[in-house]
């Protein structure tokens, strides 16, 4: 009788990895499942291994063909296990025992977010079901990992983002909660949000909309409200608040344009727009729109510079051109009615 187990063949470097799945039958193979369960319990008693049945997932991914980030994560984890044998069990359970990035990420998040009433095995099944059915999440988790590696000098590898950085963990946990929210499973999404806030000190409402290629650097103290929108390739430092200004309902939170960089401790309130490629300096209080490719700083924030080159979220440079005010004068730009353009008064 065939079973629904996934068989993975380890091969030498340079050879093509192969994975085979036997057809699932109406009853599982007791001898096979018994061996796998006993081996898991013996080798990894501290980790919940979860439900590995591939037939419970609508889109089956059994190998890493064409997935360069997953290939890198596996290679990095193997190398780290050799260098630090004490972590070999952790690395096997978290990465090397899985057949794709989605399952590995689901395992990591489930074991971080579990509590006595939200069991890791239950969370793992929920997370895998969401990620394996949602192509946009599959794309986002890889673009986010690339963003962490490219923009955070403390993140030396993809596996570090997956295993150790709570900014990445909280962002991917939000993505799952957001998918559940959109499926109408709002109570579960809110329960997950509460747990994310408790574990990671990051509070993102599951209804908020966040793009791809996002960096949450450190993440601690980050708050993003229900109707906030964050564009692609945005970088947010620790302590950022994208909040409302009162008790009104409806669209009441900031909209952050693509490529923007939001500095540590910045507070942006109300249904305002931070333009594409703009930068908000650390500790600023932003209450009005910020034009694209400009820098705002202060409390309350005002225009202090402009940016012409690459998006600040990619360079991570927290400064602006010094000749901003000469540029403003030459262009005869006056302060707008909404206060988004500012010219320094001569003393």
Automatic annotation (TrEMBL):
Q: In which pathway does it act?
A: Amino-acid biosynthesis; L-cysteine biosynthesis; L-cysteine from L-serine: step 1/2
InterPro entries, A to Z = Hexapep_transf_CS, LbH_SAT, Ser_AcTrfase_N, Ser_AcTrfase_N_sf, Ser_O-AcTrfase, Serine_acetyltransferase, Trimer_LpxA-like_sf
User: Entry's SUPFAM superfamilies?
Assistant: Trimeric LpxA-like enzymes
Superkingdom of the source?
Eukaryota
What molecular functions are annotated in GO for this chain?
A: serine O-acetyltransferase activity
Give the UniProt keywords, A-Z.
Acyltransferase, Amino-acid biosynthesis, Transferase
Q: Please, one GO biological process term?
A: sulfate assimilation
One annotated Gene Ontology cellular component of this protein: cytoplasm
Q: Which Pfam families match?
A: SATase_N
Q: Give TM regions.
A: none
Give residue ranges for domain Serine acetyltransferase N-terminal.
69-173
Q: What class of enzyme is it?
A: transferase
Q: What is its EC number?
A: 2.3.1.30
Keyword Transferase assigned to the entry: answer is yes
**Subunit composition?**
Homomultimer.
Q: Which family does it belong to?
A: Belongs to the transferase hexapeptide repeat family.
Please give the NCBIfam families that the UniProt record associates with this protein.
cysE, EPS_EpsC
What is this protein's name? serine O-acetyltransferase
* Organism encoding this protein: Cocos nucifera (Coconut palm)
């Amino acid at each position: 009788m065939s079973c629904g187990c996934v068989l993975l063949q380890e091969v030498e470097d340079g050879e093509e990895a192969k994975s085979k799945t036997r057809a699932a039958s109406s009853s599982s193979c007791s001898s096979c499942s018994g061996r796998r369960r006993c081996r898991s319990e013996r080798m990894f008693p501290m980790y919940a291994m979860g439900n590995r049945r591939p037939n419970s997932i609508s889109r089956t991914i059994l190998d890493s063909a064409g997935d360069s980030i997953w290939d890198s994560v596996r290679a990095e984890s193997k190398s780290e296990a050799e260098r630090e044998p004490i972590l070999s069990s952790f690395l096997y359970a978290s990465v090397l025992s899985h057949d794709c990035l989605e399952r590995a990420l689901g395992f990591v998040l489930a074991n971080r977010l579990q509590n006595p009433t939200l069991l890791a095995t239950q969370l793992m099944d929920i997370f895998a079901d969401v990620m394996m059915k949602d192509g946009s999440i599959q794309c986002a988790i890889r673009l986010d990992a690339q963003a962490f590696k490219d923009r955070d000098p403390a993140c030396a590898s993809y596996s570090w983002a997956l295993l150790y950085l709570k900014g990445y963990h909280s962002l991917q946990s939000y993505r799952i909660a957001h998918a559940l929210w959109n499926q109408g499973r709002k109570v579960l999404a809110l329960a997950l949000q509460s747990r994310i806030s408790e574990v990671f000190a990051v509070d993102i409402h599951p209804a908020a909309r966040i793009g791809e290629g996002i960096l949450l650097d450190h993440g601690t103290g980050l708050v993003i409200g229900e109707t906030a929108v964050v564009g692609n390739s945005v970088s947010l430092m620790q302590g950022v608040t994208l909040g409302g200004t009162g008790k009104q309902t409806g669209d009441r939170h900031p909209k952050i344009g693509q490529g923007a960089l939001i500095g540590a401790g910045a507070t942006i309130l109300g249904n305002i727009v931070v333009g594409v490629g703009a930068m908000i300096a650390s500790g600023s209080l932003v209450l009005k729109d910020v034009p694209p490719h400009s820098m705002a700083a202060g409390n309350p924030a005002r225009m202090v510079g402009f940016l012409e080159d690459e998006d600040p979220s990619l360079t991570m440079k927290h400064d602006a051109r010094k000749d901003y005010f000469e540029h403003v004068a030459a262009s005869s730009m006056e302060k707008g009615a909404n206060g988004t353009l500012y010219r320094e008064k001569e003393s």
